[in-house]
Amino acid sequence: MSEQGLSNLMHEERHFDPPEELARNANVTAEAYAEADKDRLSFWGRQAERITWAEPFTEVLDWSNPPFAKWFVGGKLNASYNCVDRHVEAGNGERVAFHWVGEPEGDTRDVTYAALKDEVCQAANALTELGVEAGDRVAIYMPMIPETVVAMLACARIGAPHIVVFGGFSSQALVDRIQDCDARVVITADGGYRRGSAAGLKPAVDEALEHCPGVRSVLVVKRTGQDVGWTEGRDVWWEDMVGKQSTEHAPQAFDAEHPLYVMYTSGTTGKPKGILHTTGGYLVGTSYTHWAVFDLKDDDVFWTAADIGWVTGHSYIVYGPLANGATSVMFEGTPDTPHKGIWWELIEKYKVTILYCAPTAIRTFMKWGKEFPEKADLSSLRLLGSVGESINPEAYMWYREVIGGSRCPIVDTWWQTETGQIMVSPLPGVTSGKPGSAMKALPGISAKVVDDVGTPVGNGEGGYLVLTEPWPAMLRTIYGDDERFKDTYWSRFENMYFAGDGAKLDEDGDIWLLGRVDDVMNVSGHRLSTTEIESALVSHPKVAEAAVVGAKDEDTGQAVCAFVILRDSAGDGGKDIVEELRAHVAKEIGKIARPRQIMVVPELPKTRSGKIMRRLLKDVAEHREVGDVTTLADSTVMNLISDNLKEDSSAGDD
Ligand code: ATP
Ligand code: MG
Hints:
This protein is of the alpha/beta class.
């Protein structure tokens, strides 16, 4: 007998059809689904024509040894050639690849494809001079500057897998990652700008390398000009080493399955996993989805407002957009530096047409209020995207109306570090948007929602999101640990990749992500997921953000505990705020979901990619010592929360 899946609590009536003109000119039409269903592998074989192959592949997929896939067997290519050289050769060298905006005011650079190519060639020559060979791992610990993209592409050019470590991570995180993948060279900067001041990066590298004797060279970009320690024989300035090199470099063709990079997952649930991506399938998957999901046109100005140090940056700042020859905005700063209207100013300045960001950013903007975006002209926007967590229907509507002027479709894209490419998302010219739903698996992707024993659930039922067929940009393994790869993703259900996320199908069969199964609460025998209760809280006009967790409860097994951040306009929420919110949840989605406890907090613990770390909140709710916080964006947040709870009477049980 199968166990009950997840409860389906929420019901959504609103939906928005694709704008007519967009639908008429869309890159992808409804036929793509049928085409891919008919013959999935030849569908992907055709998408692979987007890429320039030095040698053609002879087979689309070798799946003879699952779960170890080989895509585009026999094909050879160079990823950096595909991202830069071929656009220059096609006469598009003067096209801007990046409108880069640094954090200090006025610090901007437009990088053309021709300039990018020259710098990538120089950096590739420099790495070669430093003795880096194909297969050597290179760690990149950098701020959001053009040199970071150059470094990644230079590695790809010479076949050296890169490991980008988010520039805000501690020295310890760097040690863990360098050791895990045995990197030999580190590319870094003296420092980077964060919230108006220069923060050191090189000191963290120096500290880390005391524990990483295998690293023989450190290439240092001068960004802030601050004083840095120097180890002769190991450290070299980027300017000296890269600047002197020739701008010519013949790209070598690598096997389609040659490793492109290792990226560590965000660490929302636990110890980050080193996800290995290879070259051919990854480029096909990211360039196709970037073109299809964002309906990319020649004159678009695309902006993924995320950090390069997580997978969204890899796939949709670097590889997808560059493979497609797109023009992007790249921004070093945070949304409130130098002021809370900076994003909207940049959209107006560069006439951004497509904005892709995380729900956490949208909820933060909601918290601040619409007066900031209203100051700018956002009429250039034609499409909006969301990634990283479920977008609460309230946040979706705010994004749609305030940012998108009610004319831009929203693509809510579900994917993971592991999937490499967008997997579940509306197609903007085909699929209607529903606030809160990621809708459908993309053409060529097979996603299902199944129950406890792997049987597909019916419409209106909840369960687990699985992928039932391999896809081009899929991870190939966890770096150095094939067993962990099998255990983590392929052991829960037979012949299916289990993503770790709960989901439901609505009455129309559309997919709604419900949060991680690790976070599912069992309240009096009902299996409740986090997302719907959080969305119910966010739909209250005083609430900007919410996180719920299950805490042990003598009567019900587990009880729902909620942490909420109020909108600025709500002040302290008033003395009845807790009761008001409990009643609101009961009314919106039912009494069973009504939180036992609601705590108003100033901040929530988030990963660097903006995801709420519920396991830490669970520690708080169950009065335990807070667990591992190394992947937290701001390690002081947990103190802020516990201090706040000590002095706040609204934290008590009812
Ligand atoms: P770890 O696996 O180390 O805990 P992580 O899962 O947070 O870290 P990522 O690969 O960056 O690391 O995030 C992928 C996860 O983000 C998905 O499994 C899902 O939980 C969530 N996610 C991403 N996009 C969406 C979306 N559109 N809707 C709902 N959830 C999403
Ligand atoms: Mg994950």
